UniProtKB/TrEMBL annotation:
InterPro entries per the UniProt record, alphabetical: DEAD/DEAH_box_helicase_dom, Helicase_ATP-bd, Helicase_C-like, P-loop_NTPase, RNA-helicase_DEAD-box_CS, RNA_helicase_DEAD_Q_motif, SPB4-like_CTE
Keyword Ribonucleoprotein carried by entry: no
Record-given protein name: ATP-dependent RNA helicase
Residues annotated as domain Helicase ATP-binding: 74-248
One example of a Gene Ontology biological process annotation: rRNA processing
Compartment annotation: Nucleus, Nucleolus
Length: 787
C-alpha cells in the first residue's frame, strides 16, 4: 500500500494532518449516528460513512453497488459490534468484513508502531490467498500494511516481516506457529478478530489450534464471524467470548440457503456406474467449466490419472490438500483463468473459493452433510450468475439424503440418464490397471479410501458401508480383485465409529500432518522443502516421470500429442507443464533446471549406466527370402478371419488376459506378504534388542521411525501400505484439517496404530510422530522400550 511521497512544506503537512483528523472525527461521528433502519434503502458504497481511500480502492476494483449482506453488515461492524453474519454463498460476505477491518484501523490512525490491529483467520490456504488479494485491491490507497501467513510458504520470510504488519491474514496452524515462534508477533493490541467460514474453523478439526490462538489475544476486541452456514452453537460463541453479538442474516429460515440462480439436479446410480456416468458427462460437456468433488485425495489421484490417459478432450486438473503448495497455487490459477476445464478436487476447495464462471459442480460422492452440500454447490452460480449442480447418489443414499436437503428447503430435480448416453469405461480401466501397476495401486488406494470415507461417517442412515456392492465397485475401477477392507466386519455389524473414535481419527489425521509440517521446517522453523515426507506413491511417480521425461519433452517440442497434462505434485516436473498447442522451443525451460533424484543424476553422468538404460534394439526374424520381420507382426486379415468370428476371439482374449491378471495379482500379493512378514520379524527383533538394552535408545527409536518406509525401501509394498496407510486413507479430505500444525503445546506421542478393531497382524505396528525436541525423542524412546 504505497504512500504519497510528494514533497510538501511543513505547514502544509500540519494543515493536512489537521484536516485528516477532522475528517476522521467527522466520519466516526457519522458511523456512531448511522441508523441501519433509516438507511435500509441505501444502494451504493459511497452512501456509507467510509474514508476516501477506501472508496477509491472500492471504485477502482469495480465495486459500486452494495449487496444485501454488505448493506446490513458493514454499518454494524463499523460501529464496533460483535457480528455473526450469514448469507448465501457468493453474495459478497468478504467485503462485509474487510471494509470494516480497514476502516476501524483508519479511524484509530493505526501505524506500523501499533502492530497487528486485525487478524483474519481462514480455513484453507487458497482462501487466505484470495482474501489477501481482495484486501490489497481495496486497500490500495490506505497506509496500513497487510501480511499473509499460510503453510507451505517461506516461513523465514514471513517471520522477518510479521512484526510490521497491521492486518494479518492466515490459516490457523500457521498463525499459531508464528505466535509460538516469532518473537516479533504480538497480538496484545488486536482490535478486530475475523473468522471467515466460522463454522468450519470452529469445528473439531481446528478446535485445539483456535483455542490456543484465542489464549494469545485480548478478550476486549471486536469479533466478526461470517459463513453461508453460520454457527449458532452457544458453546462456540462462549469460546470466542462474544459480547452481545448481532446476528445478521439475509435469508429467512423458510428460504433455501443455496443461490436462486443455481439449478440443482441429482441422479441415482449404482456405485459401480459412477465413473461411467462421470466420464460420459465430461465427454458430453467438453465446452464447459466443471468442478468435480470426491471424498478423498486418493480418489482424486486415481480419477485424474486414469481419465487423462483416456483423453476426454478437455483439460483436466486436480487439487487436494496433499499437494505441494506450488502445485496448489498453480492449479488454482489455471482453473480460475480457464473457460473449458474439469477440476477434480476434495473439499479443500468447497469453502469460499471464488472461481469465476463454473458451469457445473458435480458431486461424485455424497457430501458428509447438508452444510457441505451447500458450500460445494456454492462454487457455482455466484453473485447472481447462473450455474448448475449435479449430485450423484447411490440407491441407499438417495431417500435419506434428499430428505435432509428437503428439510433445509433445498429442492433438487431428479434426472434419469438414458442408457444410450452412458458409456462404460470398465474395460478401458481394466486394461490401464493391467498395463500400469502404479495405476492399479492408485485404484486400490482409491477403493480403500472411499470405503473408509463411508465408514467414518456418523450418519449411518445415509452412509452404510455394509450395503455397498464392493466387488462390483472394485471391478468398475479396473481392479483385478476386491481389496480387503479391514473394518468390514464392524461395518456389517452396524457398529460404525463412536464419536470418540471419530475425534481420535481426526486428531490422528492432524497429527500426521504435523509430522509433514515439521519435516518442512528446521529447528528455526525455516522452510526446508526438500525434506518433505515422500510417500511410496511419490517415489513411484518420480521414477515413472524420470523415464517418461524425454518422451514428454519430444511430444512437446514436436507438438505430437493432443493434450499434455502431467502430474505435478510429486516433483519439480511442473516446470515443463503446458499444453502442446502453442509450444515454442524458446519457451521451454532449460532441461538442467529439472530436478531429478540423485540416482537419476548419477545414471545420466555414468556411461556404463547410460548404456544400460539405452534402447537395446528390437529382435527381428528373417523369412526364407531373407526379409526381416518383427517377432510380433500383425496378422493379415484373411488369416485372422480364418480363426473364427472377431467377437468370440475378443472374448477369448479378454478372458485369457483376465486370468493372467489374477495370476499376476496373486504373485504381487504373495511377494508383498513375504516382505511384510520379513519386516515384522526385523522390527520384532529390534524391539527385543531394545528391551534387552543392547541397542542405544536413540538407535531404537530411529529404526522404528524408518520402519514406516525408508528412502531405500523403494519397491511399492502394496499390502503393507494398504494396511498402514489406512489412517492416511481416512483423510476423507476434509484436508482443511491439514492446516493444523505442530504446536509447541501439543504433546508428541507414540502409540499403536489403530486397526479398526479387527485385530489384523498389522495391529502391532507402531505409528510414531516426529519428535520435536530431544526431550520428545527421549520420551518416545522410553515409550518404545516399554511397549
Ligand atoms: N458489491 C459488489 N459488487 C460487485 N461484485 C461484488 C460485490 N460484492 C462481491 N462481489 C463479487 O461477488 C463474488 C462473490 O463474493 P464473495 O466471495 O465475497 O462471496 P461470499 O459470500 O464470501 O461467498 P462464499 O460463501 O462462497 O464464501 C466475488 O467475485 C466478488 O468480487
Amino acid at each position: 500500500m504505497p504512500r504519497n511521497t510528494k514533497a510538501i512544506s511543513r505547514e502544509d503537512k500540519r494543515r493536512l494532518r489537521h484536516k485528516r483528523k477532522e475528517n476522521l472525527e467527522d466520519l466516526k461521528k457519522r458511523v456512531e449516528e448511522f441508523d441501519p433502519v433509516e438507511n435500509s434503502k441505501i444502494t451504493k458504497f459511497d452512501e456509507l460513512p467510509l474514508t476516501q481511500e477506501t472508496l477509491r480502492g472500492l471504485g477502482e476494483s469495480g465495486y459500486v453497488n452494495l449487496t444485501d449482506i454488505q448493506r446490513e453488515a458493514i454499518p454494524i461492524c463499523l460501529q464496533g459490534h460483535d457480528v455473526l453474519g450469514a448469507a448465501k454463498t457468493g453474495s459478497g460476505k468478504t467485503l462485509s468484513y474487510l471494509i470494516p477491518v480497514l476502516e476501524r484501523l483508519n479511524y484509530e490512525k493505526w501505524s506500523d508502531m501499533d502492530g497487528v490491529g486485525a487478524l483474519i483467520i481462514l480455513p484453507t490456504r487458497e482462501l487466505a490467498v484470495q482474501i489477501y488479494e481482495v484486501l490489497l485491491r481495496i486497500g490500495k490507497f490506505s497506509s496500513l500494511s497487510a501480511g499473509l501467513v499460510i503453510g507451505g510458504k517461506d516461513y523465514k520470510f514471513e517471520k522477518e516481516r510479521i512484526g510490521k504488519v497491521n492486518i494479518l491474514i492466515g490459516t490457523p496452524g500457521r498463525i499459531l506457529q508464528h505466535l509460538d515462534e516469532s518473537s516479533t508477533l504480538n497480538l496484545d493490541n488486536l482490535q478486530t478478530l475475523v473468522l471467515d467460514e466460522a463454522d468450519r474453523i470452529l469445528d473439531m478439526g481446528f478446535r485445539q489450534t483456535i483455542d490456543s490462538i484465542l489464549n494469545d489475544i485480548p478478550p476486549q476486541r471486536q469479533t466478526l464471524l461470517f459463513s453461508a452456514t453460520q454457527t449458532k452453537s452457544v458453546k462456540d460463541l462462549a469460546r470466542l467470548s462474544l459480547v452481545n453479538p448481532k446476528y445478521i442474516s439475509t435469508s429467512t429460515d423458510q428460504e433455501a440457503t443455496t443461490p436462486e440462480s443455481l439449478d440443482q439436479f441429482c441422479v441415482t446410480t449404482q456405485l459401480s456406474e459412477k465413473l461411467d456416468l462421470l466420464w460420459s458427462f465430461i465427454k458430453a460437456h467438453i465446452n464447459t467449466k466443471i468442478l468435480v468433488f470426491v471424498s478423498s485425495s486418493k480418489q482424486v489421484h486415481f480419477i485424474y490419472e486414469s481419465f487423462r490417459k483416456l483423453r476426454p478432450g478437455i483439460q483436466l486438473l486436480k487439487l487436494h490438500g496433499r499437494q505441494k503448495q506450488k502445485a496448489r497455487m498453480e492449479t488454482t490459477q489455471q482453473f480460475t483463468h480457464a473457460s473449458h476445464c474439469c477440476l477434480f478436487a476434495t473439499d479443500v476447495v468447497a469453502r469460499g473459493l471464488d472461481f469465476p464462471a463454473i458451469d457445473w459442480v458435480i458431486q461424485l460422492d455424497c457430501p458428509e452433510d447438508v452444510t457441505t452440500y451447500i458450500h460445494r454447490v456454492g462454487r457455482s452460480a455466484r453473485f447472481g450468475r447462473s450455474g448448475k449442480s449435479l449430485l450423484m447418489l447411490t440407491p441407499n443414499e438417495e431417500t435419506p439424503f434428499l430428505k435432509k436437503l428437503g428439510s433445509r428447503k433445498i429442492a433438487v430435480k431428479k434426472l434419469n440418464v438414458k442408457g444410450s448416453k452412458k458409456k462404460s469405461i470398465h474395460s478401458q480401466l481394466q486394461s490401464l490397471c493391467f498395463e500400469s501397476p502404479e495405476l492399479k495401486y492408485l485404484g486400490q488406494k482409491a477403493f480403500i479410501s472411499y470405503c473408509k470415507s463411508v465408514f467414518v461417517q456418523a450418519d449411518k442412515e445415509v452412509f452404510d458401508l455394509s450395503k455397498l456392492p464392493l466387488e462390483e465397485y472394485a471391478k468398475s475401477l479396473g481392479l483385478p480383485g476386491t481389496p480387503k477392507v479391514k473394518f468390514m466386519d464392524r461395518a456389517r455389524e452396524g457398529k460404525g465409529m463412536s464419536e470418540g473414535e471419530i475425534t481420535k481419527v481426526k486428531a490422528k489425521k492432524n497429527a500426521s500432518r504435523k509430522v509433514m509440517n515439521l519435516a518442512k521446517t528446521d529447528e528455526n522453523g525455516e522452510a526446508m522443502e526438500e525434506k518433505r515426507v515422500r510417500t511410496k506413491y511419490d517415489k513411484m511417480f518420480e521414477r515413472t516421470n524420470q523415464n517418461i521425461l524425454s518422451e514428454h519433452y519430444m511430444q512437446m517440442t514436436h507438438g505430437k500429442a493432443g493434450e499434455y497434462d502431467d502430474d505435478d505434485d510429486d516433483g519439480d516436473f511442473l516446470t515443463v507443464r503446458r499444453t502442446v498447442d502453442d509450444v515454442d522451443e524458446k519457451d521451454l525451460p532449460p532441461l538442467e533446471l529439472i530436478n531429478t533424484s540423485k540416482r537419476a543424476m548419477k545414471r545420466a553422468t555414468s556411461r556404463k549406466l547410460t548404456a544400460k538404460m539405452q534402447d537395446k534394439g528390437s529382435k527381428m526374424v528373417f523369412d526364407d527370402a531373407g526379409k526381416a520381420h518383427a517377432v510380433y507382426e500383425l496378422e493379415n486379415e484373411e488369416d485372422f478371419q480364418k480363426q473364427g468370428p472377431a467377437d468370440e476371439l475378443k472374448e477369448q482374449f479378454l478372458s485369457g488376459e483376465k486370468a493372467n491378471m489374477h495370476k499376476e495379482d496373486a504373485v504381487d500379493k504373495s511377494v508383498a506378504k513375504e516382505k511384510r512378514v520379513e519386516k515384522k520379524r526385523r522390527r520384532k527383533e529390534l524391539e527385543r534388542l531394545a528391551k534387552e538394552d543392547e541397542v542405544s535408545d536413540e538407535e531404537a527409536a530411529y529404526t522404528v521411525v524408518l520402519g514406516h518406509g525408508s528412502e531405500d525401501d523403494e519397491e511399492p509394498d502394496l499390502e503393507r501400505d494398504l494396511a498402514l496407510g489406512e489412517e492416511e486413507e481416512r483423510e476423507k479430505d476434509d484436508e482443511n484439517k491439514e492446516e493444523e500444525r505442530p504446536s509447541k503445546r501439543t504433546k508428541m506421542v507414540a502409540e499403536p496404530q489403530e486397526e479398526d478393531g479387527d485385530g489384523g497382524e498389522e495391529g502391532n505396528v507402531i505409528e510414531i510422530e516426529q519428535p520435536e525436541s530431544i526431550q520428545d525423542l527421549e520420551a518416545l524412546t522410553e515409550k518404545l522400550i516399554n511397549e
